[in-house]
Design a protein that fits this description.
With 204 residues, the chain is α/β, with parallel strands linked by helices. The chain has one domain: 3-Layer(aba) Sandwich (Rossmann fold), CATH 3.40.50.150. The chain has nine helices and five strands, in the order ααααβαβαββαβαα. The chain has a five-stranded parallel beta sheet with strand order 3-2-1-4-5. Strand 4, helix 7 and strand 5 form a beta-alpha-beta unit. It is globular. The two termini are 21 Å apart.
Length: 204
């Protein structure tokens, strides 16, 4: 199964289209999209703890667009450093931040400015001083080598053109014994090069 896009895919255009779509999710979460969003979806479909979701501002959770629950893979412990790749408006990031507590760190990385601003504003409003949101992408994480206990990501890596490079970056930033808690979508059949080169199919 291929883990890289065709060499002739316009990756700059793909990044721009993905960023444009998720800017709309941040600014107009009730708009028309091909994927589910919001608190009810997170709790009733994906099994998030309702108390953790309800503790976040509704404006933040409204833009949640994950596909699974990476927190269910293993408990996040106080004092750990968690990195959320594609942190969006901050739902997973802020849940992780509350779990690790002020002795830990929660770092979000996203390439969409509207999402970054939403996550930063919510962290400030909640007084979560150990949260940091950085601009970047999965193929070039702005994170130090061997500095992270847990990497989480939710419905993001399927949108990354070079998945092998993204996993290299995960391995680079994880401490020895660190863990990846990944929720994503996948296909069990090989797509044609034509389909993999169609940006409209990538972005839905």
């Amino acid at each position: 199964m291929s883990i890289a896009c065709p060499v002739d895919l316009d990756t700059l255009r793909l990044r721009a289209e993905v960023s444009r779509m998720y800017a709309r999710v941040a600014e107009q979460p009730d708009g028309e999209f091909h994927f589910h969003r919001g608190a009810v979806f997170a709790v009733e479909w994906l099994g998030y703890d309702a108390r953790e979701v309800q503790a976040l501002p509704p404006v933040t959770v409204a833009s949640f667009a994950g596909v699974a629950n990476p927190h269910a893979a293993a408990p996040t412990r106080p004092g750990e450093t968690v990195l959320d790749i594609g942190s969006g408006a901050g739902t997973d990031l802020l849940i992780a931040a509350r779990r690790v507590g002020p002795a830990g760190r929660a770092i979000g990385v996203d390439m969409t400015q509207a999402m970054i601003e939403r996550a930063r504003a919510t962290a400030r409003a909640l007084g979560l001083d150990h949260v940091e949101v950085r601009e970047g992408d999965a193929e070039h994480l702005p994170v130090e080598d061997k500095s992270v206990d847990v990497v989480i990501s939710n419905g993001v890596l399927n949108l990354v053109p070079d998945k092998l490079q993204a996993f290299r970056e995960v391995a680079r930033v994880l401490k020895p014994g660190g863990r990846l808690q990944l929720g994503d979508v996948y296909l069990d059949v090989e797509l044609s090069a034509k389909a993999r080169g169609d940006i409209d199919l990538w972005t839905g």
